[in-house]
Model the fold of this input.
Amino acid sequence: MQDLVPAVFLRRRQRFFADCRLDDGRDVCAHCPNTGSMKTLLGAGRRALLRPANDPRRKLAWTLVLLEVEDGAWALVDTSLPNRIVHDGILAGRVAEIPAGGGLRREPRLESGRRLDLALHSEVGGEVLGWVEIKNVTMASATRPRRADFPDAVTSRGRAHLEELAGLAASGRRAIQFFLLGRGDCDRIGLAPEIDPDYAATLIEVSRQGVEVIAYGLDLSGGSIRLGTRVPVELE
Done:
């Protein structure tokens, strides 16, 4: 986080724009990469961390990366980062459940034409051993303290990913739904059937069909944003 600039979050506009106030008093408009609902994250006056753009051709000179949540913790709102964080964490050996001796390929295209986030390869021959789909979880549960629930909006795309994973698991290879717990004031992940009952039911069903459900948190220590340790997932 060493290259991030502190600010105060003021408001979100038209999903893509976040008005913020820098510590020097300047009001700036930052790009908001998260086009979802950002439920339980948006509140005027919260601290924010922005990344300055290095490309002079960009219309917006800032990107919203982190927002303050409860107890001085941070939530990851830059949706361009979760896949990279998980990818780098697996390669660094931080995910005991997913050894990556044979390497990873990002955004592999399946026979169906749909893409998942990662493909796991064997050390010899480069055979595909499994697939990983990654979701960033940032919505605080309405009823369970210190739990973050997924999804924060209806997601037919997310449900289609689960069905794709179930089909891959049936072929005998690994199929993994990987949740990144993207807020530091929570220590576990659950489902939000009150928001999307179909997604919740589908995840429970595919988990019984061989799809692995794994979740890890974030580590924001040492001035970096990287993968932390495993956290529990509560499906029921």
Remarks:
- The chain has two domains: 5-76, 82-234.
- The first helix runs from residue 82 to 91.
- The first strand starts at residue 5 and ends at 13.
